[in-house]
Design goal:
This protein is 7% helix and 40% strand. It is mainly beta. Among the domains are: 50 residues, no CATH class; 66 residues, no CATH class.
C-alpha cells in the first residue's frame, strides 16, 4: 500500500516571471501526477469487502464491547482469558502428549486435583425452604363412580389424585372433573368395586353368590334387583375368592331366591383424604427448589422427592412428587445433600466386608447295645452239632450279637468360599477421557 506523493510543485510556477518556460504546465507533468494518483488509489483497500495484506493494526476495544467494531487479536485473547479462567476443568479427547498449551493433566501435580480413574459429582448444597401443601382433606360421599365433595377442609382436588378411606379396599383414582374444579362439586372415579353384576340368593343375612357376570363384589355395595330389600348392603365376605363367588354378610335379614343382582358401591358423607403427587408451593423463603430434592416437614411422608417441575421453576408454583401425599400448608425443607469441593468417596474396586462364618461340629454318641436275632429265623446245619441253630432246634430262643460298645460319630462342617474382591469391579461401562485444567 502506497501513498500519493506530488512530483510537480505547481504553486512554485505561479511565482515565475512571465515568459519563463518553467511557468508553463506541461502535459507530461499532469500525466505523471495522474499516474501517481492512480497508483496510490489502486494500492488502497476498498470500503466494501476489503482484503488486507501485511500486518494491519487497529485499536483494541474493551472486553465488554458489543458493537460492530473490528476485534483485534488482543481483544480476542482478552475475551478467551476471561472466559477460560485459571482452574477451569474440561474433558480432553486427545492423548496426554497433545494437551494444549496452558492446560495441565489433572493427575495431582501442577496444583491440579487427581481425577485419574474417578467420576466427578457437583459440589455444593442443593437446599431450599418453602411453604406448600399437597392433596386435600374433604367431606364427601361416593355413589358408584361419582365422588361428591360437599366441603374442603384444606387443599385442592385434581385429576389423578387418589381418594383414601378405610372403606375403600382398592385404589380409587379421580379420573375426571364434573361440576367440581378443585373444590366442592362432583368428580369421576375409577374404583374396582364401583359396580358388580352377579347371581345370588339371600337366607337371613347370608348372601350366596353362584356366578359373577361383571365387576368385583366389595364391602359397601348396595344391592338392587329382584325383590331384594331396599338399602341391603354387603358388610363382609365369608368364603370364596375375594370379590367373586362365595358367601357374604349383608346388613338386612331376608329370604331371597336366586336372582340377578347389581351391587353399587356407596359411601355416606364422611371425611376423605385426597392424596396427590402435585406439590403446591406458595412461597420460597430461601434457596431454590429443584428436581431430585427430598422433602421433610410436618405431615410429609418419608422418602418423598421432587421428580418434575410444573408451573414452578425453583420458586412458587407446582411440582410433581415421587408419590402421592396429603398435608396441610407447612414449612418444607428440600435438600439433596451437601458436598464440598475436594470431597471424595467411593472406590472403583470391589472389597469384601470383613466377616466370619461359624460352624459347629456335631457329635452323636451311641451307648453300648446288642442286637437279638430270633432262632426261628436262623437256618443252617442242625442237630446241635455245631454251626448255627436250625429252626426248631434247642427249643427256640434268641441269638445275641456281641456288644458294639459306646462310640460317637463326628460330622465336620465346611463353609464354601464367600467370594472375592476385584480391581475395578465397581466400574460401570465407561469411556475414558483426560480431565485437563487451565493453568
Amino acid at each position: 500500500m502506497s501513498n500519493y506523493i506530488k512530483a510537480t510543485n505547481f504553486t512554485a510556477k505561479d511565482g515565475l516571471p512571465s515568459g519563463n518556460s518553467g511557468k508553463i504546465i506541461k502535459g507530461t507533468e499532469i500525466d505523471v501526477e495522474l499516474t501517481a494518483i492512480a497508483s496510490a488509489v489502486a494500492s488502497k483497500a476498498d470500503t466494501a469487502s476489503p482484503t488486507f495484506s501485511g500486518t494491519p493494526a487497529g485499536p483494541t476495544a474493551a472486553a465488554s464491547t458489543n458493537t460492530t467494531q473490528l476485534a483485534t487479536t488482543a481483544f480476542v485473547q482478552n475475551v478467551i482469558t476471561a472466559s477460560l479462567p485459571t482452574g477451569l476443568i474440561m474433558l480432553w479427547s486427545g492423548s496426554q502428549a497433545t494437551i494444549p498449551t496452558g492446560w495441565a493433566l489433572c493427575d495431582g501435580s501442577n496444583s491440579t486435583p487427581d481425577l485419574r480413574g474417578r467420576f466427578v459429582i457437583g459440589a455444593g448444597s442443593i437446599a431450599a425452604t418453602a411453604t406448600g401443601t399437597a392433596g386435600a382433606s374433604v367431606t364427601g360421599s361416593i355413589a358408584g363412580t361419582t365422588l361428591t365433595v360437599s366441603g374442603v377442609t384444606h387443599g385442592t382436588v385434581a385429576v389423578n389424585d387418589v381418594v383414601s378411606h378405610a372403606s375403600l379396599l382398592n385404589t380409587t383414582t379421580i379420573t375426571g372433573l364434573g361440576t367440581g374444579t378443585g373444590s366442592t362439586g362432583t368428580y369421576t372415579l375409577t374404583y374396582t368395586g364401583s359396580t358388580s353384576s352377579f347371581t345370588g340368593s339371600i337366607s337371613g343375612t347370608t348372601l350366596t353368590v353362584t356366578a359373577v357376570a361383571s365387576g368385583t363384589i366389595v364391602t359397601g355395595q348396595v344391592l338392587t334387583g329382584g325383590s331384594v330389600t331396599a338399602n341391603t348392603t354387603i358388610v363382609s365376605q365369608l368364603t370364596g375368592a375375594a370379590g367373586s363367588t362365595g358367601t357374604y354378610v349383608v346388613n338386612t335379614s331376608q329370604t331371597l331366591a336366586s336372582t340377578s343382582l347389581t351391587g353399587t358401591f356407596t359411601l355416606a358423607s364422611t371425611t376423605l383424604t385426597i392424596n396427590s403427587t402435585i406439590l403446591r408451593v406458595s412461597s420460597v423463603a430461601s434457596g431454590t427448589l429443584a428436581v431430585g430434592q427430598f422433602l421433610t416437614g410436618t405431615g410429609i411422608d418419608f422418602g418423598i422427592s421432587i421428580t418434575a417441575l410444573g408451573t414452578g421453576t425453583g420458586g412458587a408454583g407446582t411440582y410433581t412428587l415421587s408419590s402421592g401425599d396429603a398435608f396441610t400448608s407447612t414449612t418444607i425443607s428440600a435438600s439433596a445433600g451437601t458436598v464440598t469441593v475436594g470431597a471424595s468417596g467411593g472406590s472403583k474396586d470391589a472389597t469384601l466386608v470383613s466377616h466370619t462364618h461359624s460352624a459347629t461340629a456335631v457329635s452323636d454318641t451311641v451307648a453300648a447295645h446288642t442286637h437279638s436275632v430270633p432262632t426261628n429265623s436262623v437256618t443252617g446245619p442242625g442237630n446241635n452239632g455245631g454251626g448255627r441253630f436250625v429252626n426248631g432246634d434247642n427249643g427256640g430262643g434268641n441269638v445275641n450279637t456281641t456288644s458294639g460298645g459306646a462310640h460317637s460319630h463326628t460330622v465336620s462342617v465346611s463353609v464354601s468360599s464367600a467370594g472375592s474382591s476385584g480391581n475395578n469391579a465397581n466400574l460401570p461401562p465407561y469411556y475414558a477421557l483426560c480431565y485437563i485444567m487451565k493453568t
